[in-house]
Amino acid sequence: MSKSEPFPKINITFSPAWWHHNYGIDFGQALWSDVVRSTESACIRSRLLFERFSDVGMGEADPQPQPQAAYTYGDRFMAAFWGCKIRYLPDQPPAAIALEDPIRHMETIQVPDIADSPVVEKAFGDAARLKQAFGKVQSGINFGAPLNNAVSVYGEEILAACVGDPELATWVLRQMAEAILVVYDKVSSVIDETPGDPREAFFSLGNCPVCMIRPKTYQKVVLPVDLWMREQFKGRFLLHHCGIFHPYVDVYKPLKPTELDIGWGTDLRAARAAFPDLPMSTYIDVSALRGITREGVDAIVSKIVNDAGPRDLLTSIAVAEIGPDISDETVRDLMTAGERINT
Q: What is the CB neighbour count within 10 angstroms for residue 213?
């Protein structure tokens, strides 16, 4: 591997616990429900990162607002659309509370009516308010995938159904997929003012809970719905699987993703062999960084680059949700690893 090739970008995000511990920022409901305030808070946090880590290229001295209409629910817009209550804590991101009596709800499932949805009504109202305040807005909806949404809405019951009642599980997942398409077409694309055919743009299928079921179960129960989702989108199609990816490479191939985003613990050589031509991004789990030395950081990053290469197809290495137990020194070591590995 030539060291003259560009080094993959290292992306770091900090958890609400980190912000609460270091700066006293309260991530309770008051922050999330006021989208103007939450947009301004994001700018403040970017400036604080600049003050703390500008020496390694983090943050911005004068960050521009990036208003998102769905920010109220964090990554749980679709769960809220299905009727889940959202829990807010001062040092955690918003979390969905699974519906009561999930079996009954699964057996009688119907896609919610957009016209009667208070969540959708708020999204459009917040979008108008944000555009007036900042001159621009994006929907910011994290669609996840049918299984992601079903786990948020029904908890472990949908995983049990994948094994014990696969026909019901597939039917439920198809309704989850239908809801994604409805919200994508009639909410997200409208707020984003997506030109042309929105389904020819980028879409990300986020399959976080797939690692909780066997590959054969995924292939039988979930894949038919994911394939239907894949058929709806003709542009870039990112497959996000933040768990261990390599046991699923064969069952994922029919999806024909154009990009991969895969989790810590994956055999990256096996993933690259299965998808030799796809751009790939991957992760370092925060747990691997507690008490680590600079040499340890470099060893982890170097192995990722070697195993997932070639470099021009390894788009980024991410560390998500760094908490207060990770030192600033380790953050700096991560952000500068490429400088040392490339020399």
A: 20
Residue found by looking up tokens 């979930």 in the block: 222
DSSP reduced 3-state for 10: strand
Express each pLDDT in 13-54 by its tens digit: 999 999 999 999 999 999 999 999 999 999 999 999 999 999
CA distances from 316 to 136, 144, 280, 283, 335 (A): 28, 20, 8, 8, 12
- Rounded Cα distance, 227 and 223, in Å: 6
Residue 281 CB neighbours (<10 A) = 20
Strands 9-14 and 314-322, how do they pair?
A: parallel
Whole-model pTM above 0.90?
Answer: yes
Q: Are 69 and 191 in contact (CB under 8 A)?
A: yes
Which residues, including other chains, have CB under 8 Å from residue 168's CB and lie 6 or more apart? Answer: 106, 107, 161
Contact yes or no for 207/175 (Cβ under 8 A) = no
The bridge status of strand 85-89 relative to strand 92-97 is antiparallel
Q: Is the dihedral of CA 129, 131, 132, 133 positive or negative?
A: positive
Q: Is the pLDDT of residue 160 over 80?
A: yes
**Per residue, what are the HEC states of 135-150?**
CCCECCCCCCCHHHHH
The single-letter code of the amino acid at 179 is A
Comparing CA positions, the residue from 307, 319, 225 lying closest to residue 267 is: 307
The CATH fold assigned to 9-341 is: TIM Barrel (3.20.20)
* CA-based R_g, the chain, Å: 21
- Amino acid identity for residue 254 in this structure: P
Q: Tell me how far apart the alpha carbons of residues 281 and 132 are, in angstroms, rounded to a whole number.
A: 36
